[in-house]
Amino acid sequence: MTQTDRHDDLTPVPRRQGLSYYQATARAAPGAPSLRGAARADICIVGGGLTGISTALHLAERGTDCVVLEGSALGEGASGRNGGQVGTGLNWSQERLEAKLGAGWAAALWRLTEDAKAMIRDRVARHGIACDLRHGVAHLAHRRRLVDEYRRTAGQLQDRYGYADIRFVDAAEAAAISGSAAYFGGTLDMGAMHLHPLNLLLGLAEAAVAAGARLHAQTPAVAVERVAGGGFAVTVPDGQVRADRLVVACNGYRGRFLPEIGGRILPIDNFILTTAPLPPDLVPPVLPAGHAVADSRYAVNYFRRTADNRLLFGGGENAGGPQPQDLKRFVGQRMWPVFPQLRDLAIDHAWAGTLAITASRLPEFGRTADGIYYAHGYSGHGLALSLLAGRLLAEAAGGDGAAGGGAGDWTDWDRLARLEHLPFPGGERFRRPLLALALAWFRLLDRL
C-alpha cells in the first residue's frame, strides 16, 4: 500500500467450513461486540485468530491501547479449526536450517520455537485455561525407507540441541502408540503437545479483555487507507478505527490485504472429522496412551483422542478448488485404511479450515514500507507459532523490535523477518492451479 492507496473490499470470500467439534464443545466466548461508530487506538489489529488475540494480549499487558477487528466470530478461522497439535521446531529440520542459515541462526530459531511451546504452557497455567492440554506427539513413517531419517532426527536433537524429550521408536512401538499397523517406526516427542485450540483461543481472548484490549467480532475490515500525517484509517461496515499502527493477522483469510505479498502465501483447505466416542472393547485400542500422531505423507494424516474419547482425524488438502461435498466420507477414506477397526463407527462431525502456506514452508514475518506489520504462512505449525508471533508483533509494532545491525544484534523479530521468501511459481494468478497439480502429484506419490 503506497501513501496514496486506499484498499477496498478486503473481506475474503467465505469458504464452506461446517460446524466443528471444537465449536460444539467450546467454552463461553468473552464479550466482543461488533464495532459501531468511530474508535481510536494506538494499534489496530485485523484478525481475531490466535495471532491477533496473542498480539492484543501482549500489547494490553504492556499498557498499549489496542483494538481487534474480527470479521466473523472469534476463532472462526483455522485458529479454531485445526488439528490441535503443538509441534516442535519448524517445517525444516534443524540439520537443513544449519546448512542453509548457519549454526548460529538455526540455534536461535530452535530457541524461539521452544519458547513458543513454553508460552502455551505458561498461558494455559497462568490464566487457568481449560483446553485439554496433553503432552506427547508421535511422528510416524508410513514407508519403511523413511525410518532411518526419523532415527537421525532424534539423534541430532538429542546430541546437538540437548533435547531429551524426543526418542526413536521402532515398528512395534509405533503400532502400540497408534493402535495401527500402518507405520514402520518414527519418533515420540514428549515435549510436543495437543489441545482444544478454540478453547485456548477463547481463554486468551478473555485474558486480553481483562488486560484492557478491545475486541470486536462480526466486524470485517472493508477498507484501509494511510492517513495524511501518519497512521491508518480502517473502515468497517458501521464505523471506522483510526490507529497509529496497523497489524494484519489474517493468515489464510487475508483476502485483499497486503497485495504486495500475495504471491508469497497461499491459502489451502484442510479437512478434519471426529468419530462417535470410541467403544471400550475396541481391538486394537486406538492411541491407548493418549498421544497424538502425525505421519510422513506429503498430505499429512494426523490424529489424536479428544477429552471425551473420540478420534479426531485430519487429512486431505485443497488448493482453492471445489471442496468435497461429503466431508465425512472424504476424510473417512483416509482414516479407514489406518484404522480398519473403525469402519463401522459413526462420524459425528466433519469440517474444513483454511491455513496458509509459503513456498518455503517457513513462516513469514514482516513490515511493509508503509509500516503495516504482519505474520502468517505458518504452513501447518500455526498453533505454536501464532502465539509467539503475538509477542514478536507486539514488540515490533510497539517499538521494541527494531532491527539491529549485524546478525549478533538481531532481535527475535529479525531472526524470523529476515528469512528469505520467494514467490510461488506462477505468482498470484497461477499459483493455485500449479499447487493443485503439485498436490495431485504428492497424493499419487503417497499411494505409490
Structure commentary:
The chain has 11 helices and 18 strands. It has helices spanning 21-24, 50-61, 94-101, 103-127, 147-161, 171-178, 197-211, 327-338, 382-397, 412-417, 427-447; strands at residues 6-8, 37-46, 66-69, 85-86, 134-140, 166-169, 186-194, 214-216, 223-226, 232-236, 239-248, 265-275, 292-295, 302-305, 311-318, 347-358, 364-367, 372-376. By secondary structure, the protein is of the alpha+beta class. The chain starts with 5 loop residues before the first strand and ends with a helix.
Task: Give me a quick take on this structure.
The protein is α+β, with helices and mostly antiparallel strands and 448 residues long. The chain is built from 11 helices and 18 strands.
Write the layout of secondary structure elements.
Elements: E1 6-8, H1 21-24, E2 37-46, H2 50-61, E3 66-69, E4 85-86, H3 94-101, H4 103-127, E5 134-140, H5 147-161, E6 166-169, H6 171-178, E7 186-194, H7 197-211, E8 214-216, E9 223-226, E10 232-236, E11 239-248, E12 265-275, E13 292-295, E14 302-305, E15 311-318, H8 327-338, E16 347-358, E17 364-367, E18 372-376, H9 382-397, H10 412-417, H11 427-447
Parallel strand pairs: 2-3, 2-11, 3-8, 5-13, 11-18
Antiparallel strand pairs: 1-9, 4-7, 5-7, 6-7, 9-10, 10-11, 12-15, 12-16, 13-14, 14-15, 17-18
Helix pairs in contact: 2-7, 2-9, 3-4, 4-9
